[in-house]
Amino acid sequence: MARRTQVTARQERLGAELRKLREAAGLKGREAASLLGTDAGRLSQIESGVAGVSEETVRRLVAHYACTDAALIEALVTMATERVRGWWEEYRGLLPDSFLDTAELEHHATHRRDVESLNIPGLLQTEDYARAVFSYRVPELPAADTELRVQHRMRRRAVIEGPEPVAYEAVIHEAALRIRVNDRAATRVQLTRVLELSEASHVSVRVVPFDLDGFAGAWSTMMYVSGPVPKLDTVVRDAPHGTAFVDSEAQLGAFRTLFHKVEAVSLEPGRSRDLIHRLAKEL
Q1: CA 2/CA 275 separation, integer angstroms
Q2: For residue range 170-183, what is the model confidence (pLDDT) as tens digits?
């Protein structure tokens, strides 16, 4: 296959998983390349996502690596052979690649979990809320760029509002519900929006209240995206240098534990809705 000029996070992930399997098998790159009948440079391109890989090659590689995880193998084959050109590609060259990679990641998700302490999770945001968040950027973006970001975020909501929504769980600190990124009226609309979405059978919204003693987890914000198998899960976090995609098994395990730890101290969904409803009435 031809060398790619643009590599997405999903393509990089496929290559990274193949590299992990090779390393787990104790094979050097040149050894694995020899088994495949190619050179180490070609294998390196596959493992970096620069070069595409066929179903046959994926199956040959995992056989050489003695991988017996049938579900993982089929998931890797799907990643290698799918030819999806999603709506996010319309923003290629207009928004940072991380925006597109996040949308593609969500498109293939089997489950979504969010933890937020200072902002309403992106998938639950109204247009006015998102616009206020993007407008606060320093240095300030041109109005057209801000609107592109708002539009992109609104389209991302299809993963929980579309015809085939994924299961979604959000744990939100009361602080995020109280902070007015816009005026009182817009904040009331935003809280009402969260309430409406929380009524859906596939959506769970829980709140960590202010009056909870011993909560030191306000830093534990995350977007946890489940893949077809746990090894292909991904955590997305905002970092000073941009968006970080976390996929090592050790870190994924830590984030799963952290999510359940925060979830355990939050109010159950019914009481959370009561709290959100009260906050909306106060505005």
Answers
A1: 55
A2: 999 999 999 999 99
